[in-house]
Amino acid sequence: MAKIAPTQNADTSLEDTTGAPLPETYEAALTELEGLVGRMEGGSLSLEESLAAYRRGAALVAFCQQQLEKVEQQVRVLDGETLKPLPTTAADSGEDDL
């Protein structure tokens, strides 16, 4: 299966392979992706519409992965290159139980 990567045009806005602009935020991309999945699972799309939805979804997934990688890199920089697991309980975080 081939990966579909977003491309940049001359005005530097991100687009998917169909030419549709990608959302500006991770949250907007995730919302659109969830809507696409719902429509595809509903079974009411034609073959061509399903293929277009799949292509758009692949571009949205690539965009979301890229955004997550950027955030992870920022966290690594802020945390001195060492990612630490988040505490799962109050005892792990050093908070006193009252």
TrEMBL record:
Q: Which InterPro entries match?
A: Exonuc_VII_S (IPR003761), Exonuc_VII_ssu_sf (IPR037004)
Q: Which reaction does it catalyse?
A: Exonucleolytic cleavage in either 5'- to 3'- or 3'- to 5'-direction to yield nucleoside 5'-phosphates
Q: What does this protein do?
A: Bidirectionally degrades single-stranded DNA into large acid-insoluble oligonucleotides, which are then degraded further into small acid-soluble oligonucleotides.
Residue ranges of the region described as Disordered: 1-22
Polar residues compositional bias, start-end:
1-16
Family label? Belongs to the XseB family.
What Enzyme Commission number(s) apply to this enzyme? 3.1.11.6
Q: Which NCBIfam families match?
A: PRK00977.1-5, xseB
- Tell me which Pfam families the record gives: Exonuc_VII_S (PF02609)
Instruction: Report quaternary structure and partners.
Output: Heterooligomer composed of large and small subunits.
**What is the protein's given name?**
Exodeoxyribonuclease 7 small subunit
Q: Which UniProt keywords are present, listed alphabetically?
A: Cytoplasm, Exonuclease, Hydrolase, Nuclease
Q: GO BP, one example?
A: DNA catabolic process
GO molecular-function terms, A-Z: exodeoxyribonuclease VII activity
> Cellular location of this protein?
Cytoplasm
Q: What class of enzyme is it?
A: hydrolase
Its cellular-component GO annotations read: cytosol; exodeoxyribonuclease VII complex
User: Where is this chain primarily localised?
Assistant: cytoplasm
